[in-house]
Amino acid sequence: MMPNITRGEDAPDLIRYLFGPGRSNEHTNQRLIAASADIVGIGGPYFEEDGQLKKLADEFDAPWLLFGTEVPGGHVWHCSLSLPPEDGQLTDEQWADVAQRFVDGMGFSDASGRAPCRWIAVHHGLSTGGNDHIHLAVDLVRADGTKADVWRDYSRAQRLSGEIERDMGLRVVEGRESGRTMPGTKRGEREAAERRGQEEPARLTLARRVRAAATVASSEAEFVRNLRASGVLTRPRYAPGGRDEVVGYSVALRTNGADAPVWYGGLKLGRDLTLPKLRQQWPGSDPAEAVAVWSTKAVSGARMANSLLRDEAAWEIAAQQIQQVREQLAAVPAGDVVQWAQTAHEASGVLAVLSARMEAHRPGPLAKAADVLARSAQRTVEHRSSPAGRPGQLKGAAMAAHYSRESAAGQVLFLLALRNTLRAIHGMHRSREELDQAQRIEDVARGELLQVQRAREAMRNSPGALPAPGVDHSRGTGPDGPERGAESGR
After folding, report:
1. Beta carbons of 278 and 266 less than 8 angstroms apart
2. pLDDT at 486 over 80
3. Segment among 255-259, 334-338, 393-397 with least mean pLDDT
4. Which of 53, 273, 309, 351 shows its CA 20 to 30 Å from the CA of 263?
């Protein structure tokens, strides 16, 4: 159950929308299924006659109209609560119970021990995406003229949703307890990718390239060079008053000239990809050098790696590094959001580096695995100020994936170590009851990563049997995965 919260000042306009046809005529059989005690007409009539919507809006807005209390951000609090399509639909009675629990839990009713707010809950047809949902509208001016507390309302709404999901036997949304969220691609982005002949929306491609560039880099300046070498356009955002401090960035894919580049800030790509978050992994980076590189538009290749990385044994060394990180995770509590998110961020970056090497022309199994793991790297606002947990643990592994010579035997060990790390992250999600994300990780470990590992094994046993790394996109069918067999790879 996902809450989506907005604020405004125009209650009549919101109520007309809720009982109107919707943006895509998806509103059907609109009905008021629950409301505060001051609102009449629950269950019908459905406000189809002249004047009924205005009367409802007047009842809803009465405390604000009476007291004129100013509420920064708007006195009308609107939250949609939606189920994923696979969860089916709830009855009006079940949704009414959800609505009452929600307003009680948010402190909007007299259950808070304070004067209640006026509120309504509206149920109608499925959304265009097939989601059953309700809309909650709350007047934030209480019956005594005081303001309702909406401090950190989104985090509170997430926690309440998790409690309701577990109590009703619904799917528990991934990352709810730790606040992990991953921005999804929108229909417009997918359609734009199709028009341009791209395999996927630009935002997914950019997120992987940024993670790969950051994971390999030893400094912010090197990060920028890596980005440009991978075909990414960069644009710094300077602090007000000059060009001597970079406080953020935007990136875009190069175009063929017919289309203008579409820019995305770091936060749009992922909460772990903002510049302040990325800087935590380069504590000794030279700010002056970084500003100089950001300020030039030159496209320069990344710095050459240490000669040791040219040796095929680098894959085995990198696998050992990954395995050491995996062993250290055994002592990390599941509730340590910062450490787990940092490890997931770096492991996703390693997979992104490997995908750029082995799937250069088309995103494949490794790209999917990197995208799935990136979801585990997301943290909410409440964790923004927390320091990174042991940054740079997997930098050596990322550099091996980027620079080392081809070695099917070494890559088998490397992929096995990565799958074992996914096993640990999978266990963390299960212990936190984040079952959606746990299942995604299990699927890519048993499918996509195992598939690539077996392709490497085939090359090791019969050199030349496969035409090129990563081109075998058939799904692995082996039974092993995060919960069994991951240690042996069989």
Report:
1. yes
2. no
3. 255-259
4. 351
- CA–CA dist 164, 373 (Å, integer): 26
Q: Measured between alpha carbons, how far is 143 from 314 in angstroms, rounded to an integer?
A: 69
What six digits make up the tokens of 212? 């790969």
Distance CA 103, CA 100 (A): 5
Nearest residue to 471 (alpha-carbon basis) of 489, 452, 446 = 452
Residue 71 neighbours by CB under 8 Å, 6+ apart: 64, 140, 141, 147
Radius of gyration of the chain (CA): 26
By C-alpha distance, which of 5, 371, 327, 344 is closest to 178? 344
Tokens 């948010």 found at: 106
Predicted confidence band at 130 (pLDDT cuts at 50, 70, 90)? confident
Distance of CA 31 to the CA centre of its chain: 33
pTM of the model: 0.58
Token pair for residue 308?
Answer: 């040791």
SS3 162: helix
Distances in Å between the alpha carbon of 489 and those of 180, 193, 346, 414?
A: 29, 36, 22, 11
pLDDT tens digits along 260-279? 888 999 988 988 999 999 99
Quick one: tokens of 76?
A: 């009308």
Output the average pLDDT for the chain.
Answer: 82
Both tokens assigned to 322: 């990954």
* Among candidate residues 181, 183, 163, the one with its CA nearest the CA of residue 172: 163
Q: What DSSP string runs through 197-216?
A: T-SS-HHHHHHHHHHHHHHH
How far is residue 57's CA from residue 65's CA, in Å, rounded to a whole number?
A: 11
What one-letter code names the amino acid at 482? P
> C-alpha angle 59/64/69, rounded to 5°?
170
Q: Quick one: which of 232, 215, 313, 324 has its CA closest to 273?
A: 215
CA distance linking residue 345 with residue 45, whole number of Å: 52
Indicate the burial class of 277 (C-beta count within 10 angstroms; 0-12, 13-18, 19 or more): buried
- Give the span between the Cα atoms of 408 and 413, in whole angstroms: 9
The DSSP H or E segment spanning 123 is strand 119-123
Q: Which run of H or of E encompasses 234?
A: strand 232-238
Identify whether the C-beta of residue 367 lies closer than 8 Å to the C-beta of residue 355: yes
